[in-house]
Structure formats: structure tokens, C-alpha cells
Amino acid sequence: MAQDRPVEERIERRLRDPKVARDVQTLADFTRIWCVGRHKGSERHPVSTTAARLGVYGRRIPSLCSECEAHLAYAEKRRACCPKDPKPFCARCDTHCYRPDEREWQRQMMRYSGPRSVLCGHAIDAIRHAAAARRHRAARRAGRSREEGR
Ligand SMILES: [Zn+2]
Questions:
Q1: Which long-range contacts (CB under 8 A, 24 or more apart) does 71-74 make?
Q2: Separation of 112 CA from ligand 1 center, angstroms?
Q3: What's the gap in Å between 40 CA and the centre of ligand 1?
Q4: DSSP-assigned letter for residue 96
Q5: Are residues 56 and 15 in contact, defined by beta-carbon separation less than 8 angstroms?
Q6: CA 131 from centre of chain
Q7: From the CA of 145, how far away is ligand 1's center (Å)?
Q8: How many A from CA of 109 to the centre of ligand 1?
Q9: For residues 51 and 24, is the Cβ–Cβ distance under 8 A?
Q10: How many Å lie between the centroid of ligand 1 and the Cα of residue 94?
């Protein structure tokens, strides 16, 4: 696995970026809501993903079942590898960096956890997410009308 080392190092460097860390924390919060709601009876344990190991979650290490931990570990890496700055909305991005099955999982997870996050004390995250989506849609509309005007 020696050849994977530079990739790992880049992921670790990116996870230390506060913007990336915040996105990853939100992802973990949403994944936790999904896991608690959808995987009742599953055994959960504090995750040991790359971000957890690097201290991105601080002392609030999310507790997930093994299945959700694998999804979160994948999502952390995808987020860390995103070359776009500012990062567009994953759901609206034209670069499909997610594997189709992971993409589908994340779509369902966000749809489930987004509205519930407001009830679970993550109102700020949910509002930030919705506001960013609105800005993104507005920017796209503006971009389109500029093109049409040509
Ligand atoms: Zn789970």
C-alpha cells in the first residue's frame, strides 16, 4: 500500500482545512441522525475514520454502526478530494466523483436527515445548507440568463 501514501497525505492535509472539516462534521451529524433513525437495534461504536483519527470531530466522535461508518469514511475522502473551491452542492455538481451506490446512499441519507437535523439541534447546519443551496440555484439562474443574453 506504499503507493497510496501520497493520496492519504493529501486527504489528511485537506481534512485540516476548516472549511472541509466543517463539511465533514455536518456529514457526520447527518449520518448519525440517519443511523439512529434507520438502524434501530444496530450496535454503534465511535468511528475510527481518517477524520476521527485526525481529531476533526474533536471530542464529539460520532457513534455509528459499521455500515454507516463505511459510508462516512467514503464521504470524508470524497469531500477531502473535492478540487472545487468553493465546493458546489454535491447533488448539483457536474463532476460525479461518488460511486453510484454511494451517491444514492447519500441522496437518501440527506433527504432523511436534512429535515430532522432541525429538530435535533442542528438547525444552524440545516439553515446553512439550505441557504447555500438557494445561493447556488440563484447563481446558476444568473449564469444561464447571461448566456441566453448573448
Ligand atoms: Zn447505521
A1: 71/31, 71/102, 71/105, 71/106, 71/109, 72/27, 72/28, 72/31, 72/47, 73/47, 73/49, 74/99, 74/102
A2: 13
A3: 8
A4: -
A5: yes
A6: 16
A7: 43
A8: 11
A9: yes
A10: 28
The three cell numbers locating residue 99: 460511486
Distance separating alpha carbons of residues 96 and 76, to the nearest angstrom: 15
Neighbours of ion ligand 1 (CB under 5 A): 35, 39, 65, 68
User: What is the pTM for the complete model shown?
Assistant: 0.77
CA of 139 to the centre of ligand 1 (A): 35
User: For 119-150, what is each residue's pLDDT tens digit?
Assistant: 666 666 666 777 777 888 888 888 766 555 54
For residues 24 and 79, what is the distance between their CA atoms, to the nearest angstrom? 7
Average pLDDT estimate for 59-82: 94
**Ligand 1: centre distance to CA 116 (Å):** 16
Distance (Å) from CA 44 to ligand 1 centroid: 7
Q: Per-domain residue ranges for the chain?
A: 2-149
Distance (Å, rounded) from C-alpha 76 to C-alpha 143?
30
Residue 71 grid coordinates: 459510508
